[in-house]
Specification:
Chain A: This is Rod shape-determining protein MreD. Chain A: It comes from Halomarinibacterium sedimenti. Chain A: Keywords: Membrane, Transmembrane, Transmembrane helix. The structure holds two protein chains of two kinds. Chain A has a single domain, classed as Arp2/3 complex 21 kDa subunit ARPC3, CATH 1.10.1760. By secondary structure, chain A is mainly alpha-helical. Chain A has six helices and no strands. Chain B is an alpha+beta fold. Chain B folds into three domains: 28 residues; 121 residues, Beta Barrel (Thrombin, subunit H), CATH 2.40.10.340; 77 residues, Thrombin, subunit H, CATH 2.40.10. In chain B, the strands form two sheets. In chain B, strands 1-2-5-4-3-12 form a six-stranded antiparallel barrel. Chain B has a six-stranded antiparallel beta barrel with strand order 6-7-8-11-10-9. The termini of chain B are far apart. The chains are: A mainly alpha, B alpha+beta. Chains A and B meet through helix 1, helix 3, helix 4 and helix 5 of A and helix 2, helix 3 and strand 2 of B.
Chain lengths: 169, 276
């Protein structure tokens, strides 16, 4: 069981990076809106898994996407942040019981899923676009990009969750 | 001592996060400054390899358009050649010049981005094909960007659609020169700054590159004037330019280097040194 989990997470890590840089970074819906599905890895990381390992893996995940995009460290920074804040968001969306392995993200109620995913996605995107644009005079543009990309990412994450979530992928 | 160790153990997640986040911010700021300092970039064999495979599949999708573009370019070059032969009848007797000023490398774009504020392209030629940093990149329609990193078989190009890019540009008709930048909004429109008020600006004027930067040869097409206003402060125009190049469908590009660029740079450096 434990080995199986490592295998699934490794495969998810690699597949999500490839999917992100080959396909999703080139959608450019309405000219500039792209979904950032790769954070699906951070969302679905085992709830009882090692937290330090998740922070480290998120950094590597973000840095790989940055390498393909020539974007410095914007994805790495945003990913590390949501990996660190994940326990807090979990507690506040699923209640304290998540720590005793009674909840699973793919079987929780829709409203709990929605709160969790939307919070994580928007925190990630806000940091991502703030780091990318890096200019306080363009704060409206940052918020606009966060909103549009955030909605897109949330929809894609829900689709992925319902398509593959049952098989715990 | 024990207290300190306990503190580290208790806060190890926060400390790990904090260190990694600082590294990310450092890498980000680093990538904003001059391009040679960037550590993480797409000119390496992993991303180059992935993008090559991807482009070998997606190339087929717009093959027709790309062929049309190349045919059109060939037609124009032929027209040019005909005109030259007309004016210089004894062209046959002139040997091709071996020590020409410019060297040109043809390359294919394997990854293109235009929707971010700091866009980069990846091309399938690298240092093994004599590609060096600071080469100018143009397409058959006009300017594209400047080579920022190279590996053995790949290079990444800082697109003109990058808020850090600056290209020396001028009016074709009057030689008034300024700096071309991008405000990060529309991938078809760039901005031209520092054109003095005395210049005569009209809608539709052609803007070309200026040879003074040693990156691009003089007279590479950029675009036409779309809109212009005079800045509130200072005596300069603020001009929007419609690009000739369609940055959203780039495939075949040419890399141009001035062979004597190094000499020019050194001379300029020496001159400023003497002045100080």
């Amino acid at each position: 069981m434990w080995n199986n989990e490592i295998l699934i997470n490794t495969a998810r890590f690699l597949v999500l990076i490839l999917l992100q840089v080959v396909l999703l970074d080139h959608i450019n819906f309405l000219g500039y809106v792209n979904p950032y599905l790769y954070i699906y890895f951070i969302l679905l990381y085992p709830l009882t898994g090692n937290k330090s390992l998740l922070i480290l893996l998120s950094f590597l995940l973000g840095l790989s996407v940055d390498m393909f995009n020539n974007s410095g460290g914007i994805h790495a920074g945003a990913s590390v942040f949501i990996a660190w804040i994940r326990p807090l968001v979990l507690k506040y969306s699923f209640g304290v019981s998540y720590e005793y392995n009674t909840v699973k993200i793919n079987t929780a109620s829709f409203s709990q899923q929605l709160v969790f995913i939307v919070s994580m996605v928007f925190i990630h995107h806000l940091i991502l676009f703030s780091l990318e644009i890096f200019n306080t005079s363009q704060i409206l543009f940052i918020l606009k990009s966060t909103l549009f990309s955030g909605i897109f990412t949330t929809i894609i994450i829900f689709c992925t969750l319902y398509l593959f979530g049952k098989r715990s992928l | 001592m024990q207290q300190i160790i306990y503190f580290f153990i208790r806060n190890k997640n926060f400390l790990l996060f904090f260190v990694l986040f600082l590294i990310s911010v450092f890498l980000t700021i680093n990538s904003h400054s001059y391009h040679k300092n960037q550590y993480v970039n797409s000119a390496n064999f992993i991303s180059g390899g992935v993008f090559s495979v991807k482009s070998s599949i997606t190339d087929y999708f717009d093959l027709k358009d790309q062929n049309q573009k190349l045919t059109e370019e060939n037609r124009l070059l032929r027209l040019h050649l005909q005109n030259i032969e007309e004016t210089i009848p004894a062209l046959d007797s002139i040997q091709p010049v071996n020590d020409s000023v410019f060297s040109i490398v043809g390359a294919k774009v394997i990854n293109n981005s235009y929707s971010k504020t700091k866009n980069q392209l990846t091309i399938n030629k690298g240092s093994a094909d004599d590609v060096v940093i600071d080469m100018g990149v143009i397409s058959s329609e006009g300017v594209v960007g400047i080579v920022s990193h190279t590996s053995k078989n790949f290079a990444s190009v800082q697109s003109i659609l990058n808020s850090n890019s600056q290209v020396a540009a001028k009016f074709k008709k009057s030689n008034h020169f300024g700096t071309m930048i991008w405000d990060g909004k529309n991938p078809n429109v760039v901005q031209l700054k520092e054109i003095p008020r005395v210049a005569n600006v009209a809608l539709g004027d052609t803007i070309v590159t200026d040879g003074r930067s040693t990156i691009f040869p003089e007279g590479v097409m950029i675009g036409t004037v779309k809109d212009f206003v005079i800045e509130d402060v200072g005596d300069y125009y603020n001009i929007s330019i419609d690009l000739f190049t369609d940055m959203t469908s780039l495939k075949h590009v040419y890399l141009i280097a001035r062979k004597d660029a190094k000499e020019i740079k050194e001379l300029e450096k020496e001159a400023t040194h003497v002045e100080q």
